[in-house]
Amino acid sequence: MTTTKILLCCDWGTTSFRLRLVDTSDYSVIAEHQSPDGVASTFRAWELESSVNRFDFYASRLRSAIHNLAQSSASNLSDIPVIVSGMASSSLGMQEIPYAPLPFALDGTGVSSAIFPDFNGHGSPLILVSGVKSHDDVMRGEEAQVIGLFSLNDIFGLDKSDSLLVFPGTHSKHMRVANGNIISFRTFMTGEVFNILSEHSILKDSITSGGDFTDEANQTAFISGVEASGSSGLLNTLFTTRTNQLFSRFSKEQNAFYLSGLLIGNELREIYNETYGALVICSGKHLYEHYKLASQSLNLTENVTFIKADLIDNAAIAGQVQVFKALNNRNE
Questions:
Q1: Is the pTM value of this prediction over 0.85?
Q2: Averaged over 231-256, what is the pLDDT?
Q3: For the chain, what is the mean pLDDT?
Q4: Where are the domains of the chain?
Q5: How many helices (H) and strands (E) does the chain have?
């Protein structure tokens, strides 16, 4: 591989696809293409085309997205390297690639990857990046965001020597960073449990999702849930979501925020058991205010930094660029 000023960065998740044309000098996005064609739906589509090689099927989808981006941006995107992270390297993706082990270096040198030469033209490979594993846990994608955060260290001023990073989401990740490496991490199924309970359990008739978090009554209910998360075991306190509605303590909309607070509070209380130099909460737009308010309610405010969603998005790009550069240096 050779150095390049322009890079095609793809985040291929379970339920979404995002391809961006990036200037590697300042991580700015020149053009972008998004679609709901995530790895899960692409895998199902491939299963219906059993005569087609799986890698080739995914490759055709990726090349089609590059073509669409070229048309929408009126650009020639041939001969530009492509780096793909996320679920594309999973057992449902383009090609399964083994996870990288811990400790995982934050300079990008420890990534597990596969390189396919001349994928997008002469000298322009496809780089497929895998995730990271511990002895009992795995992650894909968040490690690229962490690499990006620390490559943007002049902006964030993060402590690479001793920090605990929290990435909220469907499967929240708590990552311990020490001496320039991710040394451990844990997954919390906070978002997925909320979705299951609100859609498929007895609690579904006690809540109405989709309310405005800035509403004072909804925030009050949320804080009540955070506070209740420490009163008893989770399996017991979950049922209070139903009795809240039966006893008219909260409206169904407020009760949804109560349930959210209960689950997020339960997750963040685990931090009490951690020893760290700095706490960094890295949240997307949907959950930023939730985790900030929950942290304040739990007094997790000493030496804490909140990274906003737009900066996290920029960090994901910076991480992919840093990984590309590290692989490029490794193969020179």
A1: yes
A2: 95
A3: 92
A4: 6-140, 159-309
A5: 11, 15
